[in-house]
Amino acid sequence: MPGRYDEVRRELMREPRRWLVTGAAGFIGSHLAEELLRLGQTVVGLDDFSTGTRLNVGDLLAAVPDSRGRFRLRAGDVRNPRDCRDACAGVDYVLHHAAVASVPRGLAEPGVLADVNVRGTVNVLHAARLAGVRRVVCASSSAVYGDLRAPAQREDEVGTPLSPYALGKREGELWGDLFGRVYGLPVVSLRYFNVIGPRQDPAGPYAAVVPAWTRALLAGEPCVIHGDGAATRDFIGVRAVVRANLLAALAPLGEGPHVFNVGSGHETSLTDLYALLRDAVAAVRPEAAWAAPVHDAPRPGEVRHSRADLSRGNAVLGYVPEPGLDVALAETVRWHAARLPAPRVPSRAAA
Ligand code: NAD
Predict the structure, then answer these.
(1) DSSP three-state, residue 63
(2) Mean per-residue pLDDT for 9-24?
């Protein structure tokens, strides 16, 4: 509920804290760092720039002009315990988002995935405990629901993992719970559903569907739907995810495990998502209104239907999925449209 988030904002502005955001040069991490800086906090970012970029960091700093002196970016690897120890020094809260964040990349490189997502998480938790950090919030994923069939996914059930990524995220949650029970370090795991927003990477073989389609629609290229388009996802805007993190960092917690869904509570088929996005793009490029998608084989390791049950996060954290999907799609389209190369104007010689 906005009320609880407003309280969190006021509390942070009244009494600023020091935060470590791992993966700060990535999509979600850069939005976390941006909101924290906006609220007057001091932020350390840790990133190895494997998928994150300095462009994202430049973008977030440009969005908060008075952040000078309150943000420090450390180049480092969560697989390296020393990098984690150095980054945690003097920190109050850790928002752990560094990861191999793609199901297809995890399938292609399971060893790298286990090193970064599992060992890297253990390194961050251990370093946080040694540094006396107050609480760690870890990015988990709805992928942990795997083959579970339920109208809406609830936190007390998980399915058989369908990918190394899903298994790695589940292991991360269990490590978080263990650090709470054995070492007394409060750890919250947030199961993100499909997060969308500005700065999500549109390029490469592991691109998520919304940025890849947005770029294609803006450029007048065809969009590929893997499968028949009837598969559903729960899409949530990155600004709601940022709110969930700050609520999770500050909310009073009862008995663990502290695992919460972060989604919209609604499912949208890929076909419907395509139509919504096409309309949003048509607002800035009218020709997109007539675009049609092409279908390809479904991708391995993907779940068929996905929808978050939000009751636990709402009751304990005060989480509500705001702003909604329409706002998130419009912001995404505007961001990509502003970064596309300007159309080529024929030179005088060629005219
Ligand atoms: P992203 O790839 O944009 O961000 C991940 C960041 O981690 C990147 O900046 C990358 O350079 C950094 N990183 C990777 N390996 C590292 C290492 N060894 N050491 C230090 N930094 C490293 O992805 P994202 O979408 O922003 O995802 C952030 C987190 O949220 C991840 O843990 C991901 O699994 C989780 N998540 C994302 C979604 C989504 O829809 N985007 C859904 C569920 C969960």
Answers:
(1) helix
(2) 98
* C-alpha of residue 267 to centroid of ligand 1, in Å: 23
Q: Relative to the CA of 101, which ligand 1 atom is closest?
A: 34
Beta carbons within 10 angstroms of residue 185's beta carbon: 21
Rounded to two decimals, what is the model's pTM?
A: 0.95
- For 189-242, the pLDDT digits (tens) are 999 999 999 999 888 776 789 999 999 999 999 999 999 999 999 999 999 999
- For residue 45, list its beta bridge partners: 21, 73
Residue at 192: amino acid letter: Y
Q: What is the 3-state secondary structure (H, E, C) of 134-159?
A: CEEEEEEEHHHHCCCCCCCECCCCCC
d(CA 69, CA 272): 44
Question: Considering only CA atoms, which residue is closest to atom 13 of ligand 1?
Answer: 98
Closest-lying ligand 1 atom to the alpha carbon of residue 79: 18
Q: If you measure from the C-alpha of residue 57 to the centroid of ligand 1, how many angstroms do you get, rounded to a whole number?
A: 14
Does residue 303 sit in helix, strand or coil?
A: coil
Q: Considering only CA atoms, which of 52, 51, 72 is closest in space to residue 61?
A: 72
CA distance 307 to 268: 9
Q: Which of 20, 30, 47 to probe ligand 1 with, by most ligand atoms within 8 A of CB?
A: 47
Among the atoms of ligand 1, which is closest to the Cα of residue 194? 40
Q: What residues form DSSP beta bridges with 192?
A: 141, 262
Which residue ranges have their beta carbon within 6 Å of ligand 1? 23, 25-29, 46-52, 77-79, 97-99, 101, 116, 120, 139, 141, 192, 194-195
The model's confidence at residue 8, banded by pLDDT at 50, 70 and 90, is very high
Q: CA 229 to CA 207: how far, in whole Å?
A: 17
Hey, which residues are catalytic here? 165
Nearest to 143, CA basis, from 135, 153, 133: 153
Q: List, for residues 323-346, the tens digit of each pLDDT value.
A: 999 999 999 999 999 988 655 555
